[in-house]
Amino acid sequence: MTNRIREFLRTRRDDGPCVVVDLDVVRDNYLTFAKALPDTRVFYAVKANPAYEILELLAKLGSCFDCASLGEIEEVLATGATADRISFGNTIKKERDIEKAYERGVRLFAVDCEAEVDKVARVAPGSKVFCRILADGKDAEWPLSRKFGCEPAMAPRVLEHAHRHGLVAYGVSFHVGSQQRNPQAWDSALESAAWIFREMQDRGITLSMVNLGGGFPTKYLKEIPGVPSYGQAIFASLRKHFGNRIPETIIEPGRGMVGNAGIIETEVVLVSKKSDTDKVRWLYLDIGKFHGLAETMDEAIRYPIRTPRDGDDLEAFIIAGPTCDSVDVLYEKEPYMLPFSVEIGDKLLIEGTGAYTTTYSSQNFNGIPGLKQYVI
Amino acid sequence: MTNRIREFLRTRRDDGPCVVVDLDVVRDNYLTFAKALPDTRVFYAVKANPAYEILELLAKLGSCFDCASLGEIEEVLATGATADRISFGNTIKKERDIEKAYERGVRLFAVDCEAEVDKVARVAPGSKVFCRILADGKDAEWPLSRKFGCEPAMAPRVLEHAHRHGLVAYGVSFHVGSQQRNPQAWDSALESAAWIFREMQDRGITLSMVNLGGGFPTKYLKEIPGVPSYGQAIFASLRKHFGNRIPETIIEPGRGMVGNAGIIETEVVLVSKKSDTDKVRWLYLDIGKFHGLAETMDEAIRYPIRTPRDGDDLEAFIIAGPTCDSVDVLYEKEPYMLPFSVEIGDKLLIEGTGAYTTTYSSQNFNGIPGLKQYVI
């Protein structure tokens, strides 16, 4: 909670739930990444929070951008950032979107199979491609499936295919899993990356870049290691696997860049019991899974929640959202401890909600508008 | 698939995924419900699909409306339907929203605890309230949690509380779980409802209405019983538990009203393997969990999918959406059988997608706009 956000909420006139993002925190986060990984370029993962003000600030600070779609590319270009600072980082792209991105000047694309290379080769000739490989995602709170990337053993063929079709086989990328709490998690993927570099060298093709992906955590309820310890662990692994020939590196923080910059304000709509013998009460908020808090899915992420009654004795509550949808329950398997005295009408603050809240929000589910955002 | 939808898609000029809803099917569904339950009023669950054209058609046909929020109430009123045809059916309401609904003429509210009764009593004096009770939701493909409703044993106290505070204790509601495939599922809840009616009678309060809720299924891949068999089973249970004093009844179909009226058209963006030894290929569409297909969560609902290559030999595919989000996978635990020959660029049709698709869609996740809808 920052003073700027506190002051904004105190004087806010609008009604209804909202998220407030403090640009000063985003700036601090950017500078922390830049300092912890001084030789690494930062590509902000736009999908975490594509607010114009955030993109504009990061563009001014010198950041590059990891874009998931043509829509995001256009949002970044609208801030005045140039196309050479954009990576089209989604391995799943329509050929006509690759073509439009190329027309707008984008020259860096992610691939993970030969069919995707073929699309890029046809409509974005001469571009750089990096091949995403599968990483295991162990120790991540929001683990990855096998959706993105190929087995490391397949990557040299994909990259050679790119080389033969007029593209620049530029490097390797991977993702260790979002909200990754173990700074050592990059090591085994870097070992695979170094193997691919050597294998390509044997084929006469020199790769240049390792894209270290995202995964840098933001602080929710559990303590996390600081960004510098990630920088140190990653640098040590690069040394270990690449020796003196350390490649160009980039990172793609999203959650780590904006997560702790945002706070949601929400209102208690109802507190109730289901029967006289129930031990745990239900607490209903005016937003839930469908209006910003999707990442409570499977109760994976436990946000810190502040109430105006903090300090009173705690009691376990099941917390749910306001929609007529039974899956719109935030914490039930493991109820959440809040002051016993919380009441209908209380305003609660949910911390660490600057990333993946507005964007996950539904457009108008149950007639409730999408989450409103203020960037200050 | 209807001829009208086929013809519409054939001549459509816009690019990108969409859902097309055929109003003729909605009309047929309404008339089928009206015929199968002739003494029951139909309250369409607006949340399933709040398109203006659907609400307007149903208003003309004489339907009433189950609304989850003030937003939905205003959408219904905008079609010209009068407020006496609206139920504010959400048990979780802000007091100021109840007040605004009351100002607009709404006089029927759902409650499931005394705190909610107090709100209605304060700002909507004299209104009718029905108490929602918990039902077990067995046999539903999209089961309910304990989020809505109180234990039946608690309902008489809630209703008596309403009566004492100047409200009309009007009846009981329950929900047997969405996409309920067992027509007998209403029986045990009706037994509880009848008990509450008798208990209230003993307290000198006569209840009038049983709200049978929704749950009526739409056809996906599995066969379902027809609406008439639901009508017969429910009527038999009413007779069994209420004898000659059958109460006024209402139903709240949502999925059953619009599910089979809609078809999504989507494009294959990529087909790939993760390694040379993979047995199952991945197939990526241009929409997924975040742009209309949220109900594939936990692979609960398996939509029928048509391809331009139907008739070719089938092969198992993992199906995923286009976003840079690893949870955006539709069918993986149990892969989906599609023609082996499907290719990048093919247009697929996903049937039974008229309900809970546009509304669940995110606003702009990954820079991909919300699902576009055409109502024809």
Structure characterization notes:
- Two copies of one chain form a homodimer.
- Chain A has 376 residues and is an alpha/beta fold.
- Chain A has two domains: 204 residues, TIM Barrel, CATH 3.20.20.10; 116 residues, Lyase, Ornithine Decarboxylase, Chain A, domain 1.
- Helix content of chain A is 28%, strand content 24%.
- The first copy, chain A, contains ten helices and 18 strands.
- In chain A, the strands form three sheets. In chain A, strands 1, 12, 13, 14, 15, 16, 17 and 18 form an eight-stranded mixed beta sheet that branches. An eight-stranded parallel beta sheet of chain A has the order 4-3-2-11-10-8-6-5. In chain A, strands 7-9 form a two-stranded antiparallel sheet.
- In chain A, a hairpin with an 8-residue loop joins strand 15 and strand 16.
- The longest helix of chain A has 17 residues.
- Chain A is elongated, with a radius of gyration of 22 Å.
- The model of chain A has no long low-confidence stretch (mean pLDDT 94).
- The interface between A and B is large, with 76 and 76 residues.
